[in-house]
Amino acid sequence: MAAQSTLRQSAAEEAIAAFIDKYTELIRSKLRKTSKTTRLLSALALVASIILAGEGARRRWKRKRAEREEGRKLVRTNSWLHNKDGSRTIFVPYRDRTAKVVIHSTKRLTFEAHRRLFLSPPKKSGLADGTVPSPETKPGVNLAFLHQLSSLLSIMVPRWTSKEAALLMGLSASLMMRTYLSLVVARLDGEIVRDLMAGNGKLFLWGLVKWCGLGGVATYTNSMIKFLEGKVSIAFRTRLTRYIHDLYLNDNLNYYKVHNLDGGVGLSTDQFITHDLTRFCAAAANLYSSLGKPFVDICIFNYQLYRSLGPFALTGLFSAYLASSSILRRLAPEFAQQRATEAQTEGEFRSLHGRLMANAEEIAFYGGGEREKGFLDGVFELLKDRKALMYRARARYIMFEDLIVKYGWSAYGYALASLPVFLPAWSGAHGKLEPAAQAEKGGRERGRMKNFIFNKRLMLSLADAGTRMIYELKDLSELAGYTSRVYTLISTLHRVHACAYPVKGMGNELYSLSDVQGTMQRGFDGVRFENVPIVAPSLWPNGGDELIESLSMIVRSGDHLLISGPNGVGKSAIARVLAGLWPVYRGLVSRPKNNGEDGIMFLPQRPYLSIGTLRDQVIYPDGAADMREKHRTERDLQNVLDLVHLDYLPNRFEDRWNARKEWKDVLSGGEKQRLAIARLLYHQPKYAFIDEGTSAVSSDVEGLLYETCKQKGITLITISTRASLKKYHRYSLTLGLGPYGNEWDFQRIGTPSEKMQAERELSELRARLEQVEAWKARHAEIVRELAQVWVEGGEDGDTAPLPYGETEPSQKTDTEAEETQDEADFHEAQEMMGDETDAERRHGTSDGAEMRNSTGRESGSTVIV
Ligand SMILES: Nc1ncnc2c1ncn2[C@@H]1O[C@H](COP(=O)(O)OP(=O)(O)OP(=O)(O)O)[C@@H](O)[C@H]1O
Fold first, then answer.
1. Which residue(s) pair with 226 in the sheet?
2. What's the rounded Cα separation, in Å, for the pair 340 and 320?
3. Which residue puts its alpha carbon closest to atom 10 of ligand 1?
4. What range(s) does the ABC transporter domain occupy (predicted)?
5. What CATH number does the domain containing 601 carry?
6. Residue 393 and residue 285 share a domain
7. How much is the pTM?
8. Is the CB–ligand 1 distance for residue 495 below 6 Å?
9. Is residue 215 part of a domain?
10. Could you report the per-residue pLDDT of 84-121, keeping only the tens digit for each?
11. How many structural domains is the chain composed of?
12. Residue 695 beta carbon below 6 angstroms from any ligand 1 atom
């Protein structure tokens, strides 16, 4: 044997040597034949390519190093890069380095193509009204589920050439491999037992060696399956999360509209995106392998059993499958429904905790801990009850499942595996041929034993595959629950994005989302409202509440406007319509195209502070990379802070501009508002809508802020109830007029008509003041008289009467209360006179005042706020 193998080895070496010699000779002869010039040129080409490759490698190394440095910087400044093709490059910390990730935004066309899947599902799917799953559509394994899953698959696996498709193919190959290995193991098992019974030591040992080798391959295959399953799950999640983020956070402001206008997914979008999506992806990836494997197992093992046991056994097997699955189906609780309800309650519980964290300070001031605990406990109890109900239903089901699938099927399997022994005529070809083959070796009994072991193992594997299949069917219906949640989220987002609100029932409800007929014009140099009703929207399909019947006004560059009026009259609503948060139900709204630089900027009533560094707070919504693109430096930021009197802020923190804090809690109310004005000065828009943006700022600084903004060329549209701000504006829009409070008045500040109106009101106040003086005199008279009465009464005679105005509030008569009110009015009027005189000084007696109101009549009324 040894001599044979040495001989074989030397023959192989000789063959390799001959092969090398042949090709070396061939190259040499070719070289000999080539001219000197060709050789020289080839040598030069070789040198050039070596130099070029070296240079390429050097550049690549340099680029990588620069990239790494940039990555570190971007991670530190919490920023990213915008690429020319619209994608973004972000760097994320990875071990002790940074990893570069390029994120491509979903194309508009993709959204449009998918809209059909999510908004117009086929009638058969049971997703009734053609938009989103109707409340009657129960989550479960049905046609609706198939449609939902296939729609989501078109996002998760967009192309056959995508990474996800490759991963799925890899997973399929591993699954097939595992099934094949199971088959080989079953056969080997039988052989080992046969050899053991026959007392054949050599074959038995060889069998053991094969067993160990198979074990290694099988273990590797199993861990590969787990690994690929994880990869598939992450890949699915990445695709879906990016898709949802692109749909949720875009210029259409869907993140606002989905909660405030649509309401299709309630308030727990976070639960949908963070929890349900993760569970869905894990379940989908797991299902592919755990349903795919038993399925392949069942097909292959059944075929093998058919060969060994014949058609009779196979028919028996199928009848057993059908009978047991129909029984189990009847016994199964509504897994999908339970999962969907549980996920919804989990979402409510989570969002309550989120609210508590976001409003901790306010709640703490009110001492509302107990009340909040009550809310939380209530929702948790509901969650607990739902879970308990679910587990109870499951326990019952699992008991029957075990009984039928594990023990029933095993007993049935033994019976079938005994067929070749007791009823050889009924068993298949393999069963009949095998005894003959074994007889040749003189081991009929052992042949039977081997067959029995093989069949039994197949049977057990089959039972195992069946059990897993049944378990997976249960998981499938849980997956249906998550699928329905994710599908609902995406279809709701599509509906909001496309503003696709069909008319329902009898027709449009007035000012519902299907009754939006107005136009929003972007790209106008100014702000214009033409016959626009201001409507507070209701959740679809309800109609909204009209706040202002029809608003018409125009603000051009330099025409600073002050909007005033009582609370809740719709001042901020105007900003919401202009910003595109609320629909333009009728008429025309014109506004600058962009938000921010050279466009329009809105400062909301509650200042928002983002996560990130101090720098991020000033430049929000820009990032550090945008700041660099705009060639702004930290010096510029410092200048901006100087202007709003926050120059001390960077020095307060060790990391200065890179300091990271919970800014919401670190800054005071006034500081937050000044920081918001700093943002305005950083972005320098042409128009700024400031909604009560300086209410917490001291009045001396407030004036400076307004003047600075104006000097920077920003046209201000201010919402405020502070009359003192009038002097910084040219026009005023007063809301809440008329008997029903739905009329308005727009006019130039300081015009003769406005002054006339102010004077009329002042004279009214003066008249009331005179009345007050008369009442004062009368009051003094009464007090004097009373004092005399008391002296005569002799009890408190020496008590001096309290001077006017020092009476205890509880002792005031109605008349006195009225007098005090009049006095307050008087002081307010005096203040207004001051303001008015200021405005007059600024504008002189200007003409051409615009006066309109909701009914379109000329208006002479001016309301002093
Ligand atoms: N998201 C919303 N959905 C529906 N109605 C809303 C919404 N936000 C506000 N409203 C309602 O719209 C009306 C006008 O609100 P708005 O915020 O414009 O008042 P405002 O005049 O700015 O009051 P304030 O001076 O108190 O700020 C209010 O009755 C309010 O309840």
1. none
2. 32
3. 536
4. 527-762
5. 3.40.50.300
6. yes
7. 0.71
8. no
9. yes
10. 877 888 888 777 778 888 888 888 889 998 988 888 88
11. 4
12. no
